[in-house]
Write a structure and sequence with these properties.
Its EC number is 2.7.4.9. InterPro entries: P-loop_NTPase, Thymidylate_kin-like_dom, Thymidylate_kinase. One of its GO terms (cellular component) is cytoplasm. The structure is a single chain. The protein is α/β, with parallel strands linked by helices and 198 residues long. 37% of the residues are buried. The protein contains eight helices and five strands, in the order E-H-E-H-H-E-H-H-E-H-H-E-H. Strands 2-3-1-4-5 form a five-stranded parallel beta sheet, sandwiched between helices. The structure holds thymidine-5'-diphosphate.
């Protein structure tokens, strides 16, 4: 099964993902952006204040396509548990926010449409919920995506995604202390795996 972790920067998602390695030593742990050269291209675009927002969406999407064919689909075909730190919802939430002011009329629907044609949706998604101010302060606002005003729109997009598919998401309160967040994520994954196996 495919479980993804999502949330704003500074939500503690990566810490939780790392903690899960010990609990599920046989699972495949992966992330987006990936460490491939597609991922490098994504990071290069993220570092460019003037990057074209649509071009950037396609770089992220190219990285996702490669991630799917190289890592995610083969692992799922082997019956592995795959846990990804960020996945398609990051595009729906972040790039829809970046493209809000663009000529695209409904960026979130557009980006979902692109993915629908080729992607493999997660079986479950753990959403680490944190307010944009805390997220921006924790993340240190080192890249253009980490500013509070931008993260406010990203969070609204995540809420729209959760409203559209409430059963896929498990919401965890990420304003709690990190050790409590890790524990809540671990318990959620345990329940999801058990329900999937039943
Ligand atoms: P992340 O790996 O969470 O941050 P870090 O490199 O600090 O560990 O993600 C990097 C940034 O990329 C983050 O600000 C969110 C952004 N992002 C998108 O905008 N769209 C995407 O599809 C993905 C996967 C990430």
């Amino acid at each position: 099964m495919l479980i993804t972790l999502e949330g704003l920067d500074g939500s503690g998602k990566t810490t939780a993902w790392e903690a899960l390695h010990d609990v599920y030593p046989d699972a495949v742990f992966t992330r987006e952006p990936t460490e491939s050269w597609y991922g490098d291209a994504v990071y290069r675009s993220m570092g460019d204040e003037d990057a074209d927002a649509l071009a950037e969406l396609f770089l992220f999407t190219a990285d996702h396509a490669d991630h799917l064919s190289r890592v995610v689909r083969p692992a799922l075909a082997e019956g592995e548990l795959v846990v990804s730190d960020r996945y398609s919802d990051s595009r729906f939430a972040y790039q829809a926010a970046t493209l809000e002011e663009s000529e695209l009329r409904r960026p979130l629907d557009y980006i979902r449409g692109i993915h629908a044609a080729f992607s493999r949706p997660p079986d479950a998604t753990i959403y680490l919920d944190v307010d944009p101010e805390t997220a921006a302060a924790r993340a240190g606002a080192t890249n253009k995506f980490e500013r509070a005003s931008y993260l406010r729109t990203v969070r609204e997009n995540y809420e729209r995604l959760i409203d559209a598919e409430p059963h896929r998401f498990v919401r965890v309160d990420a304003t709690e202390p990190p050790e409590d967040v890790v524990e809540m994520v671990e318990r959620s994954v345990e329940r999801l795996v058990r329900e999937h196996d039943d």
